[in-house]
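Many introductory courses stop at the sequence. We go one step further.
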Amino acid sequence: MKCPDCKSERFYVKDPDDEYEVYTFSCPDDVVCFDEDVDAGEAPAVDAGTETFCERCAWHGQLSDLDKS
């Protein structure tokens, strides 16, 4: 999956309890894969409606808004 604006394949989500804590990931084959340094047990649940931020540009929106190409 790619950013609809800049085509980056790197994203992050914010912790719902701490807006300064972020979890970075990519989505190969439409599957959220957190970075190796992210403890998957501590990462927030990510689904189609999760607010997602591009790591390269200012785009943010729902995970379902990402380009699937």
